[in-house]
């Protein structure tokens, strides 16, 4: 749903189509999806990979409108698209300047070539699984000196609040964010950022926890 041009409804339609018809065989088949027209296809196709596709380029970031260009490169080298993707020596022998046109400049050709070197690569970053310290269940389990993982939940002018796995978020004063002077906590932390913090003070009676980021590093 976060792919350019899609949104939640179209994304759900893609999944529904796949459920009814099985795995997509080509990128062009996406045009059969309800409410996924030419304009959306133009925006989204380069981000939607088709694993085990009939055309190897369907499992790359190369946009369909540039397929003919890549096919011409392969033809000029006397190889198939698959061989072009899998053989770095063949790719090295290609002079990109020969394929420069009014519509496609050298920078674009270089971008296409970079994608040919990594077909099938998932462009998303690996998901980092976050876990709180399993020994902390309540504020009574929090002790001065502990270094624990936390998630930034709020940022203010005077610091930020961090969830370390108990009901009460801990406070990191701006002076405890970094080993340098900063005017704005946003220079150091972002909302929902996972960080390590050191417990400086625990006031169970007032339900307050003081934390430090710089002392945990």
Major β-sheet profile: 5 strands, mixed, barrel
Number of strands: 5
CATH top level of the largest domain is Mainly Beta
Amino-to-carboxy terminus distance: 37 Å
Q: Strand share of the residues?
A: 15-25%
Task: Tell me the CATH superfamily of the largest domain.
Answer: Nucleic acid-binding proteins
Named CATH topology of the largest domain: OB fold (Dihydrolipoamide Acetyltransferase, E2P)
Low-confidence stretches: none
Q: Supply the number of helical segments.
A: 6
Structural class based on helices, strands and sheet pairing: alpha+beta
Number of domains as seen in the coordinates: 3
Q: In the CATH classification, which architecture of the largest domain applies?
A: Beta Barrel
Overall residue-averaged pLDDT value: 90
What is the overall shape?
elongated
Q: Please give the share of residues in helix.
A: 25-40%
Strand order of the largest sheet: 1-2-3-5-4
- H and E order: HHHHHHEEEEE
Radius of gyration: 26 Å
Which helices and strands occur, and which strands form pairs?
Elements: H1 7-21, H2 38-44, H3 67-77, H4 81-86, H5 88-92, H6 106-116, E1 147-156, E2 159-163, E3 170-173, E4 194-203, E5 208-212
Parallel strand pairs: 3-5
Antiparallel strand pairs: 1-2, 1-4, 2-3, 4-5
Could you please describe the fold and organization of this structure?
By secondary structure, the chain is of the alpha+beta class. It has three domains: 1-48, no CATH class; 58-122, DNA polymerase, domain 1, CATH 1.10.150; 139-216, Beta Barrel (OB fold (Dihydrolipoamide Acetyltransferase, E2P)), CATH 2.40.50. It is built from six helices and five strands. A five-stranded mixed beta barrel has the order 1-2-3-5-4. A hairpin with a 6-residue loop joins β2 and β3. The longest helix is centred in the first third of the chain and has 15 residues, at 7-21. The two termini are 37 Å apart.
């Amino acid at each position: 749903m976060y792919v350019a041009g899609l949104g939640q409804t179209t994304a759900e339609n893609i999944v529904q189509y796949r459920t009814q018809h099985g795995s997509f065989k080509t990128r062009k088949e996406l045009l059969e999806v309800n409410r996924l027209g030419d304009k959306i296809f133009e925006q989204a196709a380069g981000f939607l990979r088709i694993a085990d596709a009939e055309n190897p380029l369907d499992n790359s970031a190369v946009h369909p409108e540039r397929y003919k260009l890549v096919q011409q490169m392969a033809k000029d080298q006397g190889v198939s698209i698959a061989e072009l993707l899998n053989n770095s020596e063949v790719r090295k022998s290609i002079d990109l300047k020969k394929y420069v046109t009014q519509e496609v400049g050298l920078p674009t050709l270089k971008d296409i070539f970079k994608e040919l070197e990594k077909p099938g690569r998932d462009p998303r970053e690996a998901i980092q699984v976050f876990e709180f310290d399993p020994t902390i269940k309540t504020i009574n389990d929090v002790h001065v000196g502990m270094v624990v993982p936390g998630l930034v939940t709020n940022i203010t002018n005077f610091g930020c609040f961090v969830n370390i796995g108990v009901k009460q978020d801990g406070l990191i004063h701006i002076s405890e964010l970094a080993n340098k002077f900063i005017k704005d906590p946003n220079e150091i932390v972002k909302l929902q950022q996972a960080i390590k913090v050191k417990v400086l003070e625990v006031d169970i009676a007032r339900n307050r926890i003081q934390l430090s980021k710089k002392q945990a590093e």
